[in-house]
Each structure stands twice: as structure tokens, then as C-alpha cells.
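Folds vary. Our protein:
___
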Amino acid sequence: MDPSASPLELAVALLRIPSITPRDEGCQLLIGSFLQQLGFTLYPLRFGNVDNLYARLGSKGKNFCFAGHTDVVTPGEESRWQTPPFAAAIVDGMLIGRGANDMKGGVAAMLAATARFLQANPNFAQHNSLSFLITGDEEGAAVDGTVKVLEWLRQRQESIDYCLVGEPTCMQQLGDGLKQGRRGSLNAELIFQGRQGHVAYPHLADNPIHRAAPLLDRLARHRFDEGNAHFPPTTLQMTRIQAGDGSDNVIPGSLRLNFNFRFGTASTPAQLEEQIHNILAEADPPLPYTLTTHLSGRPFLTEGGELLQALSNSIRTVLDISANPNTAGGTSDARFISLDCPQTVEFGLFSPTIHQVNERVPVDELERLCQVYTHLLLTLFPAL
């Protein structure tokens, strides 16, 4: 791919590659070829069955990192797509394809912005560094992607000073929102133990559904915290309840419940678990249970700093809009990067169609996002 390629040309090339998690199918080869022509040193990193790419230009000063992912979710019902999901067709000014928003459009804008920045600042690598951290594991289990690359960087004693994650962040129009943090995610499985028996002889059994029902109601209604200035109150959402084998005449012996917490900095995972135990202790008589949890990401928050200030200024200058720094939405790989790089923010495209049929992005927004990224780099690293 020519280093002078537009963000649209880059996006089309990436969208035509069916890189459904965890298959990369050549996306990172395309990105690597582009960056190599700009002088970057490439480090292809495969962990498990996941392809990742770290690329760096320069070895001095501050290291600014663009982070993102090339994997996409499945297209779903392909017959419902206006055009084939990997055709990257342009219809009425819209680029349609799986990954247009999430997040090949953002990656394309990063690449094009990097080329423009280096053309405007040819001596950059003599004083500072630019890097790309691209994974193929963001939409999947997220265990062999960014986490492993960060471990590899630590072993090399290589640090990231600024990181911009190009996930879609805007809610109503391009530029109206950026993520200065994200809520944490805690998954839990709760198993209540009863005693199996015949439905005609309930006195000889102990029905865990009946006994757990009031406890589940208390869990659903419980206020775990009040949130704070940057994060809303913690939420608990039950995602699965299972009991019995479908027999109409058997009282089940156990009930399995799965749920998820989305939480900010007002509570820790340990505090949330403690509150669960306190609620379950209210059962009279006691209902035996086991609780297991898995922390998939801690909350992070970037308050102030050069990157946040420069990004806000670039959005205002290029798009003539004041971005709202917020922490809403799901998780992203920023939750891992922020542990090593306190100045981590997210800014990307308007995102109404992510993961949907006919995912799409206005063609002109790819160019405008590229301009914001270019302005940001020139703000942080003026040409010398």
C-alpha cells in the first residue's frame, strides 16, 4: 500500500480482509508493509493462535503509541446486508462493511495520519518515537493479544508515554465524545445447592429455585455504590439462570446464575464480592452456595495531562466541537494499556452501527478523523 494512500483507500483495503476473531488473514501484513515504508521497525508477535503487531519508529524521547485491533465480529445474517459484508462497498457516501466503525476505519485514519505527520515533521525520529500496537484478539477472549504484547514490552524495558486507542467513541456526531477512562468488568458465577427430589414430595427436597428467588431479587435491587464524579453507580446484570434438566417432575438439586458487574473507582472487586456474601447471608435458613469471580478488566481514568489536553484541542480546532470526556460504554484494550501508560485516552469514529448488520461509516468522517490525529501529533511534537 502506497504511503500516500488516503484513509478511505486504507479502510477499503482492510475491510476487504475477512479477519474474524481470531484470524488475521493478512490485515497486519498490510499494515506492516505500510509502516515499513515509513521507516518503522516491525515486530510481528504471535501468541497462541493470535497475530499481533508492534511497530516502532525512533528510539528516543517520548513514545506515542496508536493502539487498535484488526479482528472483527462475525457478519451475522449476511442475507440482511445491503452489500456483502467484506466487499467494502461505497453507497450514498457511506463505506459499508464489517469493521468500518469497529475499528478498521480508525486504524486506517491512524496510518494515514502517521504518514502525513512524518511528511510534515521529517526529523521527528531523531528526538522522539512513534509506535503501533495492533492486536487480533480484542473482540475475542483478549488473552493472547494486547496483554501479551505489553508483557513483551516490559521484558524489553520499553515503555509507552502516550497512547491513543482508536475505538469508536462518538455518540451523536464525530467529535462529541472521547473516553478518558472505562468502567471495570467483573464476571461472576453463583451456584446455589439444594436437594433434588420428586415434585409430589417437596417436603423431602429443598428447591434451590424457590429459595434463591428472593435473594436474586435483593441482588438485582441492591445499590452497590453511588458512583463518583467520573463514574456512574456500579451496575449488576444477570446474564444466565439455569436449573434442572427439563424434567417436569423433578425438583432440581442446584441453580446456576451468571452475572456481570460494570464498576468504576468507587468500589473494588473485593468490596463487591463482600456485598454479595452479605446479601446471601440473609437467607434463613442458610442456603449453601459457591461464588467464583473473574476480573476481565479494572477501571481506569486519565485525569488531565498533556495528551488529554492536546486531543481536546485538536478536536475543537479541526471539527469545531468540544468533546465530552467520559467513561461510558463497554471495555476496550485501554484497560490493559493504562496500567503501563497512565496517559491513555480513546477517540474514534461515530459508532451507531458497531456489530450491527450494515455496519458503516461516512466516507468524509474517515478524512476528518485523520485530520484530528494529524493535528494531535503535530501539537504534541511540533516540527523542528
User: Anything to note?
Assistant: The mean pLDDT is 96.
